[in-house]
Amino acid sequence: MLPKDTNAAFSGGQCAGEEDWVDNRTVYIGHKEPPPGAEAYIPQRYPDNRIVSSKYTFWNFVPKNLFEQFRRIANFYFLIIFLVQLIIDTPTSPITSGLPLFFVITVTAIKQGYEDWLRHKADNSVNQCPVHEVQHGKVVRKQSRKIRVGDVMLIKENETFPCDLILLSSSRDDGTCFVTTASLDGESSHKTYYAVQDTKAYTTEEEVDSIKATIECEQPQPDLYKSVQPLPLGSENLLLRGATLKNTAYIYAVAIYTGMETKMALNYQTKTQKRSAVEKSMNAYLVVYLCILIGKAFINTVLKYVWQADPNQDEPWYNNRTDAEKERHIVIRAFTDFLAYMVLFNYIIPVSMYVTVEMQKFLGSYFIMWDDDMYDKELGESAVVNTSDLNEELGQVEYVFTDKTGTLTENNMEFIECCVDGHVYVPQAISVCVGSLHSSEELFFRALCLCHTVQVKEEETVDGIKHGLHSGRPSSFYISSSPDEVALVEGMKRLGYTYLRLKDSHMEILNREDQVERFELLEVLTFDSVRRRMSVIVRASTGEVYLFCKGADSSIFPRVVSGKVEEVKDRVEHNAIEGLRTLCVAYRALTPEQYEETYRLLNEARLALHDRDRRLAEAYDQIETQLVLLGATAVEDRLQEEAADTVESLHQAGMKVWVLTGDKMETAAATCYASKLFRRGTRVLELTTKRTEEQSLHDALFDLSRTCSDFGLIIDGATLSAVLQPGPEASSAGDYKEIFLEICRNCSAVLCCRMAPLQKAQIVKLIKASKEHPITLAIGDGANDVSMILEAHVGIGIMGKEGRQAARNSDYAIPKFKHLKKMLLVHGHYYYIRISELVQYFFYKNVCFIFPQFLYQFFCGFSQQPLYDTAYLTLYNISFTSLPILLYSLMEQHINIDILRKDPTLYRDISKNCLLRWPIFIYWTILGVYDAMVMFFGAYFLFDNTTFTSNGQVMFGNWTFGTLVFTVLVFTVTFKLVLDTHYWTWINHFVIWGSLIFFVVFSLLWGGIIWPFLNYQRMYYVFMQMLSSGPAWLSIILLITAGLLPDVVKKVICRALWPTTTERIQVPRPQPGPTHWIKENCSHERRPTHWCRSVVCSSTEC
Q1: CA distances in angstroms from 88 to 43, 84, 343, 348, listed in the order given
Q2: Can you give the pLDDT at residue 154?
Q3: Is 494 annotated as a binding residue?
Q4: What is the rounded (10 degree) CA torsion for 152, 154, 155, 157?
């Protein structure tokens, strides 16, 4: 401990030449400047504590948003068309392109602006959160955004750390505090952090304010677990922003990283933009239609000059071309005409489709969040949609990669048994052997009561959940960084050994004789994923020093020198096969000399200024040797509710399910059998380290590649690394990846065990990059699953017990694994069907819209005369035909929800993007061309100037003809959607018939009033005059019928001769139900007997 009036530097103890560090910062605690005569004081500028997750500001929103929107090809294309209309003389008004473009840009900007406003709102709630700072010996309250580097903060229990802090002191006597880091690494359990030894005695505001010290630390970096080197402080002293103080009344800590320099902010990563298969198809179709547009413009340009080559044919007078324009070079005139035709036909590119798709995805995502079947009462959570851009991708999944612990299983550990020297102890049967415990058994039980980081909580509630209530009174319960540890300590309590508390660096346990035993806690060798074990060094009341170690069997057995290894190993393998999680326990008695050597090794490693983590790992490796095996434990992680049914349904739907886990092979395989990933009759092949030791990897892979299909495969992390990164010996044998992929294609299910988080992402990436390019989905609940969730086409996070990092980084979050079934088989199915129809329908209706304009040029001397009025050109996609397809894409249910859930095989009907394949796209395009030709030539041949009359007056003019074609067009494309709709509600009727009524009413108003702001009145009375003619009504009905008839005939023939599974289900059939036969006869009169059959049908399809 430092005297309160001394100037302390936590970086003290440096060697000569190490005073000045490159790329470091000096933090003055409490902003106390060094005294006169010290080194030159150079103030450093640090950012304030504001967190900014928003994308825009008030000043840059408009230019930045416009730049991003015009990076999209469709928007940029229409901007060019709009500019062309402004620059040159084009047949249509710039409004016809500018207004739809303005509508699309505005709607998108409003949507993105609203989303960014929500981010601003969230930022402000965090930045304006009140915090407590120690100033001049008093606690003052201020906003979080005003924290500066060097401020001394007071944090109280259950408060979240507002920035990255170094722990100075704690309310606990030992200077420790307990923290949950769920928002950082996904771990919701409690972790222990330690105050700086020199300051842990400063426990009041006045004492903390009197500290005069500096902290030398490196500049901020995103590594969550790297310490603030180059000082002798470790990650156990660093409290990270976003973590929460637990089970500790208060702490004092100094801010060292603030705002966007905190590790939490540096770990914000922009997710790579995921694009769905539907969006890729849309872009491909857009390119095709762009080529068609260019072809149309080119053909019309050529034919125009061919037609004008005749001396008797010249530029039409009504185009008002000047002599100067006529005398231009032919190339310039041809190019100008080409651009004019591009403008005239540009509506074949459906710019409004993009905004409709975005609205459909955004609004459609609420159906997932509103689904009561996906609400979990236990968690009080419903499904969350983090991105709506991938809704339809849920209906295209071919591979599902799932974590095991916490995803397939509950991550709720229960102690089952322990094996000591070959003897098995079960809590329920302990009364049988209570009086026959030997010294090894007692040592084993004491080891499990001491070798852990469990904390004892006395309060009645934690995190709002009541714990430890007995007879209405609060009692203690256990909390830990690992649910396994809690299960083991609770298991020991049931076996007669109760862990009481850690007090004054002494661990207290209550033995079977109700006697309290005290052990001094000397050292804790913390668990890490590389060692896969942890140890404690304790001193008993008798003076003996023990090292107790527990960990995975693979990390304990190689370090054991004595004990009943074979008996314990057999029991471990037996429990693993049963699906239980196993740990081995060993110990080592230390002499005073050995303990002194151990203390020296640990102290040197902890005080190292460079490579401290590596030196600590080396020290742990030297200390945890020469162990005596005591026994092993077995803990059960139960399978989640309906997990097996969900996996089986995914198989029936045609998806391949892979389990990626870090557990040992035997445990994971047992879980796979329980979850029906592997069936008892399934032939399961292994590609593991054990097999590759017996034969080369090359031979093992080729043996598996010759195996017949439909088998299960188990592969471990070490072998997978060899497959993905083969050594030099593999060069002559070819690429292992392709062989491995070929094996996987023949597998019905795959289990990958002993997997590191990075390997999970690698395996997902490997499958994504295969030649079939399948759609992948990854689902997990922990921070170790984030990499594969981000890598997969669709990432789903489980709101589990390992925190919310997976849920936050995912595209979708669900409470339980069972909800995946409805999300894919129902929501995914509906989303894909809806958006497929939306995309094809948009291209179809735009072909119907613009192809008559192309045909019309052959009848107007290629003069670029528009067929439709400007108002119709502008409002066709915005008003007249947009709402019906939008509502269809939100509400269509071609099959009942219950049928989709009960029959997973229906998912196969929409797999591999089958509704957006080229043959279907070509069919919709041909149908659009056919309907356009029916509309145009039907109107052309049915009427001539003498027959199309009103009250005996000829009325068949240019705008009447165009209005007739446009009227047939609007009704035809709307009725086409009516024919495709299977699910009718009052909203459908209102929108569809309302859209048609709106068109009629608008046309009557547009042509019935002389609008003063128009410089032309060409549509005046046209629509009303057309409808006053009986032949016009007849032609509209006939042309609509002729346009829809081929599609109806095609559907009837296909359903009758080649029906799909979906179409068979859609056919109404009498459902099984109670049948009543009623016989009516009369015994007095001879009359026919009447039989009446009454069938009760409960199906909604009937």
Answers
A1: 62, 6, 10, 21
A2: 93
A3: no
A4: 150
Instruction: Write phi, then psi, for 831 (nearest 5 degrees).
Output: -60, -40
- pLDDT band for position 833 (50/70/90)? very high
Contact (CB, 8 A) for 345 and 293: yes
The whole-angstrom separation of Cα 169 and Cα 174 is 9
Q: How far is CA 223 from the centre of its chain?
A: 23
- Give tens-digit pLDDT for 101-160: 887 788 878 877 887 787 788 788 888 889 999 988 888 999 988 899 889 999 998 898
405 is in an annotated binding site: yes
Question: Do residues 851 and 295 make contact, with C-beta atoms less than 8 angstroms apart?
Answer: no
Range 411-417 average pLDDT: 81
Residue whose C-alpha is closest to residue 775's, from 906, 659, 914, 655: 655
Average confidence score pLDDT of the chain: 79
389 annotated to bind ligand: no
Quick check: 285 pLDDT over 70?
yes
Q: Do residues 525 and 518 touch, judged by C-beta distance below 8 A?
A: no
The partner residues of 215 in beta bridges, in order of sequence, read 27
Question: Do 179 and 191 touch, CB atoms closer than 8 A?
Answer: yes
> Which residues contact residue 1061 at a Cβ distance below 8 angstroms, ignoring those fewer than 6 apart?
905, 906, 908, 909
User: Is residue 198 part of an annotated ligand binding site?
Assistant: no
**Is-contact 828 820, C-beta < 8 A?**
no
SS3 label, residue 1038 = helix
Written as six digits, the tokens of 636 are: 């059960």
Is 760 annotated to bind a ligand? Reply is yes
Buried b (16+ CB within 10 A) or exposed e, 107-138: bbbeebeeebeeebeebeebbeeebbbbeeee
The set of residues, in sequence order, having a beta carbon less than 8 Å from that of 139 and lying 6+ positions away, is: 132, 133, 154, 205
At 149, phi and psi to the nearest 5? -60, 130
- Distance (Å, rounded) from C-alpha 882 to C-alpha 1065? 30
754 is in an annotated binding site: yes
| Percentage of the chain modeled with pLDDT above 90 | 19
Q: What confidence tier does 198 reach under pLDDT thresholds 50, 70, 90?
A: confident
- Asked whether 133 and 258 are in contact (CB, 8 A), the reply is no
Type and span of the H or E element at 736: helix 736-745
- Residue 472, pLDDT above cutoff 80: no
Asked if residue 404 belongs to a known ligand binding site, the reply is yes
Q: What residue type is 479 in one-letter code?
A: I
- Whether residue 514 lies in the annotated active site: no
pLDDT beyond 50 at 1069: yes
Question: Is 508 in a helix, a strand, or coil?
Answer: strand
Q: What are 683's two structure tokens?
A: 């032939």
Q: How confident is the model at residue 804 (pLDDT cuts 50, 70, 90)?
A: low
Residue 552 CA to its chain's centroid (Å): 32
330-355 core/surface letters (b: 16 or more CB in 10 A; e: else): eeebeebbbbbbbbbbbbbbbbbbbb
Listed residue (547, 549, 451) closest to 507, CA to CA = 451
- 113-120: long-range contacts (C-beta < 8 A, 24 or more apart)? 113/56, 113/61, 113/65, 116/54, 116/55, 116/56, 116/61, 119/53, 119/54, 119/55, 120/54
Euclidean distance between CA atoms 157 and 179, whole angstroms: 10
Half-sphere exposure of 120 (CA within 13 A, CB side): 11
Whether residue 403 is annotated as binding a ligand: the answer is: yes
**Weakest mean pLDDT among 312-316, 370-374, 787-791:** 312-316
The alpha carbon of 366 is separated from its chain's Cα centroid by a whole number of angstroms, namely 15
How far is it, in rounded angstroms, from Cα 299 to Cα 445? 90
What pTM did the predictor assign? 0.71
What would you measure as the largest C-alpha separation in the chain, in angstroms? 131
pLDDT grade for 1017, boundaries at 50, 70 and 90: low
Catalytic residue among 164, 403, 484, 869: 403
